[in-house]
């Protein structure tokens, strides 16, 4: 019990600078993709739109919120140069506060194949309430103060996978470490000291190639921790203090894995894969190969890039073919599979679903945001389209203080109930 209390204290100290209204990382606090906040279920360019502001460049990364600051990354290109840019806005008004440029003076992957789907700014930042940390793929990892001052920068590799799809995974924080899945850049997972950028450990493995999901932390019953990630064909658990492999198990997801793992207490769930796609539930803990002892179930599903939403013992998502799914977390069995009407062809959904209040919000790329209730069938309540923006909406939704934030390749939008 003493060890558990000390572990909880350490995690409390990490988040002591954050407040309840913050959305500090990809899919929100702890990556749970849920909030008790209530936001409008209907909006348009003339209804419940508090503000909008054009962005200087494109991106699939989601914004984060810390205090009154909304921070997002963009890729900006002209005829003469290219750069990535980190921008900060006032979350209440949309007023620009600062921006920091990171010039691209190195060779990027060519704009072809899957990069045309998500672009060159796909990694969501993370904050501990004191600084913001950004991962820019081959452009490295950077620490910025909340006023935009550069603290440190670290190069984590400039390689490419055999498919040259570009970087996608987001950063996470654990204790004094910043953990980077640099699978695309160096076939490695790297832990950096968040104060200095110094490498604490680096775990290299060829099997990390084509691993695009964000890793997560599991807290075991004895207070110890595991860093879990889904790689093609396996689930891995590493010791987050050293990067050493603790256990692994076989999974049905092969080829490439894009969705992030989902942690629910002592159970880890993983989805995705292409061409071998599926899902798996595995109990945390154990040593070496736990395929026979810890895997609760596996299931076959279609291919997709979004991370499903776990809510009340069920998973919800819309796949690459525009089909809405609901499955049971107890056994992976299908609850429903229904085609979403009137979606554009060609991977209509890139963003992950988020539970806001008691409704699921799914941002589609070109056909608005679908709002529906969890349940036994797919029954959309509303589809909200912002007229005049024909660019892709690839970022997952963000919520803070009763406001919903959406980003497209063109603009940032704040949705709030009209007073």
Keywords:
419 residues, mainly beta, Methylamine Dehydrogenase, Chain H, 5-stranded mixed beta sheet, 6% helix, 40% strand, disordered N terminus
3D structure, described in words:
It is a single chain. With 419 residues, the chain is mainly β. It contains four helices and 34 strands. The N and C termini lie far apart (49 Å).
Q: Summarize this, please?
A:
With 419 residues, this protein is mainly β. It is built from four helices and 34 strands. The protein is 6% helix and 40% strand.
Main beta sheet, described? 5 strands, mixed
The CATH architecture: 7 Propeller
Whole-number tally of structural domains: 1
Question: Could you name the CATH homologous superfamily?
Answer: YVTN repeat-like/Quinoprotein amine dehydrogenase
**Number of separate strands:** 34
Strand order in the largest sheet: 1-28-29-30-31
Strand-residue proportion: 35-45%
- Helix-and-strand structural type: mainly beta
Mean pLDDT: 94
Q: Using the alpha-carbon principal axes, give the shape.
A: globular
How much helix, percentage-wise, in residues?
under 10%
Whole-angstrom Rg? 20 Å
- The CATH topology turns out to be Methylamine Dehydrogenase, Chain H
Q: Name the poorly predicted regions.
A: 1-16
CATH class: Mainly Beta
Distance between the termini: 49 Å
Number of helices: 4
Question: Secondary-structure blueprint of this entry?
Answer:
Elements: H1 2-14, E1 34-35, E2 49-54, E3 64-66, E4 69-77, E5 82-90, E6 96-103, H2 115-118, E7 126-127, E8 131-135, E9 141-145, E10 150-154, E11 172-174, E12 177-182, H3 183-186, E13 188-193, E14 199-204, E15 216-219, E16 225-231, E17 234-238, E18 245-250, E19 262-264, E20 267-272, E21 278-283, E22 288-289, H4 291-294, E23 295-299, E24 309-311, E25 314-318, E26 323-328, E27 334-339, E28 354-356, E29 359-363, E30 369-372, E31 380-384, E32 398-400, E33 403-407, E34 411-415
Parallel strand pairs: 1-28, 18-22
Antiparallel strand pairs: 2-34, 3-4, 4-5, 5-6, 7-8, 8-9, 9-10, 11-12, 12-13, 13-14, 15-16, 16-17, 17-18, 19-20, 20-21, 21-23, 24-25, 25-26, 26-27, 28-29, 29-30, 30-31, 32-33, 33-34
């Amino acid at each position: 019990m003493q060890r558990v209390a000390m572990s909880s204290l350490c995690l409390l100290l990490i988040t002591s600078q954050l407040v309840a209204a913050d959305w500090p990382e990809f899919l929100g606090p702890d990556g749970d993709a849920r909030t008790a906040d209530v936001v409008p279920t209907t909006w348009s360019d003339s209804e419940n739109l508090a503000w909008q502001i054009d962005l200087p460049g494109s991106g699939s990364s989601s914004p984060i919120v810390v205090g009154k600051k909304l921070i997002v990354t963009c890729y900006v290109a002209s005829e003469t140069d290219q750069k990535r840019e980190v921008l900060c806005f006032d979350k209440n008004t949309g007023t620009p506060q600062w921006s920091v440029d990171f010039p691209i003076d190195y060779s990027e992957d060519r704009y072809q194949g899957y990069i045309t789907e998500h672009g060159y700014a796909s990694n969501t930042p993370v904050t501990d309430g004191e600084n913001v940390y950004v991962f820019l793929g081959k452009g490295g990892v950077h620490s910025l103060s909340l006023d935009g001052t550069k603290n440190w920068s670290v190069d984590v590799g400039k390689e490419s996978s055999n498919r040259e799809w570009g970087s996608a995974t987001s950063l996470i924080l654990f204790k004094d470490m910043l953990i980077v899945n640099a699978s695309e850049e160096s076939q490695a997972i790297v832990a950096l000291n968040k104060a200095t950028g110094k490498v604490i450990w680096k775990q290299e493995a060829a099997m990390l190639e084509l691993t695009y999901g964000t890793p997560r932390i599991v807290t075991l019953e004895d207070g110890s921790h595991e860093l879990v990630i889904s790689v093609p064909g396996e689930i891995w658990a590493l010791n987050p203090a050293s990067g050493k492999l603790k256990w692994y198990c076989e999974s049905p997801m092969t080829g490439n894995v894009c969705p992030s793992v989902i942690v629910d207490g002592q159970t880890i769930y993983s989805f995705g894969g292409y061409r071998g796609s599926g899902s798996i539930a595995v109990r945390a803990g154990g040593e070496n190969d736990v395929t026979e002892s810890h895997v609760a179930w596996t299931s076959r599903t279609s291919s997709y890039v979004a991370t499903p939403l776990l809510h009340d013992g069920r998973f919800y998502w819309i796949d690459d073919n525009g089909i809405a799914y609901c499955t049971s977390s107890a056994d992976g069995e299908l609850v429903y599979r229904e085609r979403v009407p009137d979606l554009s062809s060609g991977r209509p959904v890139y963003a992950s679903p988020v539970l806001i209040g008691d409704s699921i919000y799914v941002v589609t790329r070109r056909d608005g945001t679908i709002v529906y209730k969890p349940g036994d069938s797919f029954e959309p309540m509303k589809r909200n389209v912002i007229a005049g923006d024909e660019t892709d909406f690839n970022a997952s939704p963000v919520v803070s203080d009763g406001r919903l934030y959406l980003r497209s390749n063109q603009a940032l939008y704040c949705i709030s109930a009209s007073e």
